[in-house]
Amino acid sequence: MAPPRVGDVDHGDRDHPVAVSVHTIVSFDFSMAPVPMWHSTMFGPYFVAGAIFSGIAGLIIAMAALRKFLHIEEYLHPVHFQNLGKLLLLMSLLWGYFVFAERLTVWYGNESAEIAVLRATQKGSFAPLYWTMVVVNFVIPVTILSIKKLRTIAGCVIASCGVLVGMWLERFLIVVPSLGHKYLPYSWGTYRPRPVEIMITISTFAAMTLLYVLFSKFVPIISIWEMKVGEQQPTETVHERSERVLGEVRP
Predict the structure, then answer these.
(1) 3-state SS, residue 233
(2) Average pLDDT over residues 125-149
(3) From the DSSP assignment, how many helices (H) and strands (E) are in the chain?
(4) Tell me, what's the pLDDT at 2?
(5) Measured in whole angstroms, how far is the alpha carbon of residue 234 from the centre of its chain?
(6) What is the pTM of this model?
(7) Is the pLDDT of residue 159 over 80?
């Protein structure tokens, strides 16, 4: 297979609209339901940003694990983690803005059912989970990734582990407190996960980890054409090429 040339179209870009449509459809399912704090036009970009946020964190952890256990340090350099760390920092700031805007509109609207959910997450029984989510999704990533000296492989992995935990807590806090405090007070209730549900959740994470490990064992992690391109030495630098082109254009 010939290496890609400058100007070639990356057909992987076609997946971007699919990813956006999938996550916005899920968010529309939430926002169209008559449940407090779900009926919001913000849920579309909020869910897309959250998916990208957790996806970058998962990618960093997977890259660090494969780099260590498969000994592919020659291909995965620290600069790759630094660039992904910058993207993770950007998404952490965007996530913080969405969370602030969501809470601000609920507080300003002052609707009784939504205020009940807001108080349950800010000061009530769900407050420890909520503030843990804020710390691991915003405070820790911004503190680590905004400082260049801390934006190392270890720093990016620490921030990414916190993000994965925080994003799971975010999804939990979107579903459980809202369903427990609906518009009619007589339907309010509490939820505690049962041992069977906890085992199903743990089994799901274990199954996905096993499938990814098997995939990385039997499928090449790095594309063959990327390795071939890396082995080729350029015969003409960009500066030399620009000088040659300009020399041909000039009369």
Answers:
(1) coil
(2) 93
(3) 10, 0
(4) 43
(5) 36
(6) 0.78
(7) yes
Q: Of the spans 115-129, 154-168, 208-222, which averages the highest pLDDT?
A: 154-168
Q: Are 161 and 137 in contact (CB under 8 A)?
A: no
Percent with pLDDT over 90 in the chain:
39
CB count within 10 Å of CB 121 equals 24
Q: How far apart are the C-alpha atoms of 107 and 174, rounded to whole Å?
A: 16
Q: Who contacts 227 (Cβ-Cβ below 8 Å, separation ≥6)? A: 75
For residues 156-161, average pLDDT: 95
The CA angle 103-167-133, to the nearest 5 degrees, is 55
The answer to whether 36 and 181 have CB atoms below 8 angstroms apart is yes
Instruction: Name the amino acid, one letter, at 67.
Output: R
Buried b (16+ CB within 10 A) or exposed e, 67-84: beeeeeeeebeeeebbeb
Report the pLDDT value the prediction gives residue 192, as an integer from 0 to 100. Answer: 80
Exposure string over 148-168, b if 16+ CB within 10 A, otherwise e: eeebebebbbbbbbbbbebbe
* φ, ψ dihedrals at 72, nearest 5°: -115, 40
